[in-house]
Specification:
There is one protein chain. By secondary structure, this protein is an alpha/beta fold. 48% of the residues lie in helices and 18% in strands. β18, α20 and β19 form a beta-alpha-beta unit. The radius of gyration is 31 Å and the shape is globular.
Length: 765
């Protein structure tokens, strides 16, 4: 039982997320209490923040004191390289535990009047936007104006992300500057007072942040806005470097672990790019223009020393700003495009390591796309706010404004889809190592220090090139050598990724019966983190959903996800409806489909992936002809029904290393496999066995294990799965033959590295 105070409420489609603070947790185990006495049963634990998922429809308001009953759980780290860490994400926000409520009741209805009013205003505003703009574009407007991303279509959100404009969906400094500075300037001009304008602007922005939620970027923008407006109010010069330093310190004091969050790094990285890199580039353009205009390289006398701390006349500041605006107007459209492009490049340079570290890919055309997207954001925000207000008194006028917003968003969508058709619209690099990020950052710093020195541009470009190359060579696509096999934690299912000695990429199965959208949320993030943009071969053992549903997702996402060259299936006689459907879907999406028969191999340098069963026939070529037509043939020696028994079994050999991948083979299929191994691989020492059928008691018989005698046995099974895999009888049989057992349910992903076919290393993620 958790007792706490409601501090935030978020609405999802069929449940609500209630954030509680000032909590006390009391363990209540009723069945245990009936039988035994334990003084610690009612011991209370204090926990600052807890997240409650509630689908009971209980109405609560901000400030209410509630009691919630349910099973308390702690957030988990990612279980595969490149996966999403719930633990890191929520702990950076001060939340360490969560529960699904079985019962919730309000014990004190006292509420925060102001915050509760703002929350109800936000909910009503959201309904208005969804009603006026429709679910698709209304959901985007909810994210842009109200910071509520739960209404955004998943595909649209991903489309923005892969094109490098996902920042428009988050409440950032751009949004808050528009809201705060707009209100500040309006009041200042109406009253003629910097003091009144500043106080009104800060108060309005503070209320807006209370309504939309206090994210890292919102707090950063609020602190910088207060310093910016405070400089005007006190008649001092605004120093951007001091402002961003104070904001960073403030955010870290508020939420220390947010330093590791992508939002913190991107928000402050972008600001630093504008503050520190952009002025250097802009100054170089200014100097060139002056040299061309008057034959001298003298700097204008209207520049302000940003580091000054003395009082200056406010009217003088306004005059200087007016002069700068005049120069910009005289420069025309070309100068405006040049400045925007320069700023965009500076932001990209500053945030490049963060983007690669957290998202593993670089949108190649995002610099140019943002030249259109960012200028239109001001218009989108203005019309969104105006349309929302007008809808309250004049639905026609409000609908017209919101309709223009929808047109802007349609333009964004069309541009993103168009860019996705361009060659190399994104580069999947993988996650770089820390040494590469450090070398890149040092190179940027050296270039900044030497920028105004009388050094040749070639030297500066060489220094920058060293940093970029260091970052690239720290990515996994460059560092690879030998054979690397990763048994992914996909829950209750199989997913095995292999990278060959020459960089070939192979996926054997990919599916799960207990993880939703396993292809998108388990397979793809891992593949991208390893720098894999294309899978050369995807091999399927059989048609059970816990082996193919993730691969099916990858096939459906060919336009935006990881591409597949060739889908390899067992002999056609082993196909069921699921495999037939998978083959048809692959062909529809432009993927080559091949069958792999017994004794056929895929070879790469000294590595060979050989099919042992099902199917056996006389063949001349040992390689897959991926272009040939899929046709059936007469089998000899076996006649299994499609399913587990007819699983495609693969032997992987690299130098002195041997590994056996058995799918879900069992019963007659395993008996036949045992005879095959005795006849053809009798002298083989198997270092690694992928235990068949997730360790069920119907597979991995004593006869089979005596023949294989693997050094390591890898079990792929889900945590607390309903089948009880791996079965204790199977575990005992493996232990009896001396195998060391590694399970994904206990260790997450299991990584096997074989260097030059000699050195074997097994790492539990």
């Amino acid at each position: 039982m958790v007792t706490g105070q409601v501090c935030q409420i978020e609405q999802a489609s069929d449940y609500q997320m209630v954030y509680l603070n000032n909590n006390s947790i009391c363990r209540q185990n009723i069945s245990f209490q009936k039988n035994q006495k334990d003084d610690n049963l009612n011991q209370e634990i204090q926990e600052p923040y807890i997240l409650v998922f509630d689908d009971s429809g209980q109405i609560v308001r901000l400030g209410n004191q509630v009691q919630v009953w349910g099973k308390l759980k702690f957030f988990e780290r990612e279980r595969n390289p490149g996966g999403f860490s719930q633990k890191t994400y929520y702990q950076s926000r001060g939340i360490w535990a969560y529960l699904w409520s079985s019962k919730m009741q309000c014990i004190d209805e006292s509420s925060y009047q102001c915050r509760d009013f703002l929350n109800r205003l936000r909910l009503r505003w959201k309904e208005l936007l969804l009603e006026t703009a429709g679910k698709e574009y209304g959901g985007i407007l909810c994210a842009v104006i109200l910071g509520d991303k739960r209404q955004i279509d998943t595909e649209m959100k991903e489309l923005y992300q892969v094109n490098g404009i996902a920042h428009v969906l988050a409440i950032s400094g751009l949004h808050l500057s528009f809201v705060g500075l707009g209100f500040y300037r309006m009041i200042r001009r109406a009253t003629g007072s910097y003091l009144l304008g500043g106080a009104a602007g800060i108060s309005f922005l503070l209320l807006y942040i209370l309504m939309i939620g206090s994210s890292v970027s919102a707090i950063r923008a609020l602190i910088m806005f207060c310093i910016r407006v405070g400089a005007d109010m006190s008649g001092r010069v605004y120093d951007a470097a001091t402002s961003v330093a104070v904001a960073a310190a403030g955010v870290i004091i508020w939420r220390p672990l947010s330093f590791y969050d992508a939002g913190f790094q991107l928000s402050f990285g972008a600001v630093c790019g504008v503050i520190f890199l952009y002025p250097l580039a802009a100054e170089r353009f200014e100097n060139r223009e002056r040299v061309a205009g008057d034959g001298t390289g003298r700097r204008g006398g209207d520049r302000i020393n940003n580091g000054a701390n003395h009082k200056v006349n406010s009217k003088m500041i306004e005059k200087i700003k007016d002069k700068k605006e005049d120069r910009m107007r005289k420069g025309g459209l070309a100068a405006g495009v040049r400045d925007s492009l320069t700023a965009s490049i500076c932001i990209q340079i500053a945030t490049l390591p963060t983007v690669l570290f957290h998202y593993y890919e670089l949108p190649l055309y995002s610099i140019f796309l943002n030249l259109i997207v960012i200028p239109l954001m001001s218009l989108l925000l203005a019309l969104g706010f105006a349309g929302s207000l007008l809808c309250l008194v004049w639905k026609g006028g409000g609908g017209f404004c919101v309709g223009i917003c929808s047109l802007i968003l349609k333009l964004y969508e069309a541009l993103c889809k168009g860019i996705c058709l361009l060659p190399k619209y994104r580069i999947i690099t993988g996650r770089p190592e820390f040494i590469g990020i450090l070398l890149y950052s040092i190179s940027i710093l050296i270039c900044m220090l030497l920028w105004n020195r009388k050094l040749r541009s070639m030297l500066k470009m060489s220094i920058l090139a060293v940093g970029i190359l260091g970052l690239i060579f720290a990515c996994p696509t460059v560092n690879h050598r030998g054979l690397e096999v990763t048994f992914l934690d996909v829950g209750q299912g199989d997913g095995i990724f292999m990278k060959g000695p020459e960089g070939g990429t192979y996926l054997v199965d990919g599916g799960s019966s207990d993880v939703k959208k396993v292809g998108r949320y388990r397979l793809e993030p891992f593949l991208k983190s390893q720098g894999v943009g294309t899978l050369n071969y995807v091999l399927i053992s059989h048609g059970d959903s816990d082996h193919i549903n993730g691969v099916k997702e990858l096939i459906e996402r060919q336009g935006i996800g990881v591409k597949i060259d060739t889908l390899v299936l067992p002999v056609q006689e082993a196909w069921d409806e699921a495999l037939r459907g998978l083959a048809a879907k692959a062909l529809d999406n432009g993927i080559k489909v091949a069958v792999m028969e017994s004794e056929q191999s895929i070879r790469e340098e000294e590595m060979a992936i050989t099919c042992i069963q099902p199917g056996k026939m006389e063949i001349e070529s040992k390689d897959i002809d991926s272009q040939r037509e899929i046709t059936g043939f007469e089998q000899s020696g076996i006649g299994f029904e499609p399913g587990n028994e007819a699983s495609m079994v693969l032997a992987v050999r690299y130098g002195g290393f041997d590994m056996l991948l058995t799918g879900d083979v069992e019963a007659e299929g395993e008996e036949y496999l045992t005879r095959q191994l005795e006849e053809q691989y009798g002298t083989c020492d198997w270092e690694v066995l992928k235990v068949a059928h997730h360790g069920s008691k119907n597979s991995s018989t004593e006869e089979f294990l005596r023949q294989v005698q693997p050094t390591y046995a890898i079990v792929s099974a889900g945590q607390e799965n309903r089948y009880g895999h791996p079965h204790q009888e199977t575990v005992k049989r493996l232990a009896d033959v001396g195998s060391k057992i590694c399970s994904t349910q206990e260790n997450g992903a299991i990584i096997v590295e074989v260097e030059f076919g000699k050195t074997l290393k097994i790492e539990k993620y």
